[in-house]
Amino acid sequence: MTISPTENAPQTTARLRGSGLTVGYDQRVVIDGLDIDIPDGRVTTIIGSNGCGKSTLLRCLARLLPPKAGTVFLDGEDIAHVRPKQVARTLAILPQNPVAPEGLTVADLVGRGRHPHQRWYQQATAADEAAVAEAMEMTDTLELADRTLDALSGGQRQRVWIALTLAQGTDLILLDEPTTYLDLAHSIDVLDLVRRLRDDHGKTVVMVLHDLNLAARYSDSLVVMKNGAIVTTGAPAQVIDAAMLDEAFGLRAHVMTDPISGGPLIVPLGAHTRTF
């Protein structure tokens, strides 16, 4: 049975929320009339099949894509009316396919994360340099500082982009597929970092992930989307079951208890395997 979007929603203050969001590209509507509250100080992951609107929603929440209707609220204000620099001091986003000028070094790129905190005539301060160094240390990219982006592997580049996002020093962090190009070990490293950002620094993190088992293990709350709408939200143990997986993903699976985390663990079933 489908769970209503608010039935399992955590009762926490939402610094970032969307009301009545209709979002799309040109004349194509991807999301229509969607409401969402992002729990403060938690890790929220948006999941759903390809093309369901996950990245579109994230871009709208970050003010990269203005809604055709509805409002995104940041700290109680319509984000469309907040000065861009103030938004950038509060909210950072790592898009799915970021780009940078050719020949830029890692240190220069990560340093650009400090721009919202600087004036046009101001050189980097000691605080800026410390923030950059800390971000690179957290992402294990310090040894790459003098290398150019085009000399890095896909996984190294992804960690550098995450360092840029962290150097921005915001309380709200939006990550669109942060484990793209990463092998499993480095994916775990990134998600462990996300958890530390929550635990040690009180950050609010919103991610889009495709790996459902990683989403279940590392998230406080899941938002399940299908066809531009929210199917259900809540803690992974409340949300993930065989019925939801079939409805939202067309996936036949057995859900068992993860022996490590105690949360749900998804075991896909073969095409001719009967459900348990």
UniProtKB/TrEMBL annotation:
InterPro entries xref list: AAA+_ATPase (IPR003593), ABC_transporter-like_ATP-bd (IPR003439), ABC_transporter-like_CS (IPR017871), P-loop_NTPase (IPR027417), Siderophore_ABC-ATPase (IPR051535)
Occurrences of domain ABC transporter (ranges): 16-252
Domain of life: Bacteria
UniProt-listed Gene3D superfamilies: P-loop containing nucleotide triphosphate hydrolases
Main location: membrane
Keywords linked to the UniProt accession: ATP-binding, Cell membrane, Ion transport, Iron, Iron transport, Membrane, Nucleotide-binding, Transport
Protein name per UniProt: Iron-enterobactin transporter ATP-binding protein
Compartments, as annotated in UniProt: Cell membrane
GO cellular component terms given for this protein: plasma membrane
UniProt key word Membrane: yes
SMART domains in the cross-refs: AAA
GO terms, biological process: iron ion transport
UniProt membrane topology term: Peripheral membrane protein
Gene Ontology molecular function: any one: ATP hydrolysis activity
